[in-house]
Amino acid sequence: MESVLLENEPQWRLGFFLSVFTLVALWERVASRRRLNYTRVQRWPHNVLLTAFNSFLLRWLFPIAAVGWALECEARGWGLFNWLHLPSTVEIILSILILDFAIYAQHVMFHHVPVLWRLHRMHHTDLDYDVTTGARFHPIEIILSMLIKMAVVTVLGPAAVAVLIFEILLNATAMFNHGNIMLPVRIDRVLRLFVVTPDMHRVHHSVIPRETHSNFGFNMPWWDRICGTYRAQPEAGHDGITIGLPYARDAKELRLDRLLVQPFRNLGEASASSAPDMDS
Q: What single-letter DSSP state applies at residue 206?
């Protein structure tokens, strides 16, 4: 089974991506959580084209990507798990947990290191919140994220199948928790004990800085609770929450050309060289 997964890694990833994207997009049409401010025609072409560009860029720059790099590390005997020789099931579970925490820590870092925030803020300047927001990242951030992931793989030495499972889970949950989808409150309350839900992550996209700097998890919800960055609900409620950043409200910023050069422009924030104040 592992060999089949690894031999067809691009196809597995693309298949899961398209399946989850389609499912969430249909769910948004049937049972949406909030009324959107902009139409799909205004936002989707730019977000989808950016996602496609990032995918091609990563494949061009990193032909073997994180999964192939895990195989290379295994061949060279690099990394903790290549020394410990744990049972495969234990290794896969631990690898997924550690990789997920690394993504959480990376997310926190991109919020609080000023030069990284200038890249990451593009994800937050979407003026609506739906499945396409989940893959709306600047290409430079995507490249840095891959380099960080490969560095973690080098140190950890996880099985390649664990990295593949993790990446499929991460992509799927990122689309799910950015979905503009309705979940009954009782189901959400239970589900967010195990996975980041749309209502949990939507808080992170609030214009209020102390909410923007909370709920950093994409996949597993536990790191926010353990590290003290968890907020259960937005102050204004999910119907009243304003999505985006307070200093980037121009609809022109939704365009692909503006997104690509956004990190190099001052959007009108109080200090163009620093991340927003957490306590404001």
A: B
CB-count exposure of residue 252 (10 Å: 0-12, 13-18, 19+): exposed
- In order along its 280 residues, the chain shows pLDDT tens digits of 455 556 677 788 889 999 999 999 999 999 999 999 999 999 999 999 999 999 999 999 998 889 999 999 999 999 999 999 899 999 999 999 999 999 999 999 999 999 999 999 999 999 999 999 999 999 999 999 999 999 999 999 999 999 999 999 999 999 999 999 999 999 999 999 999 999 999 999 999 999 999 999 999 999 999 999 999 999 999 999 999 999 989 999 899 999 999 999 988 765 433 455 554 4
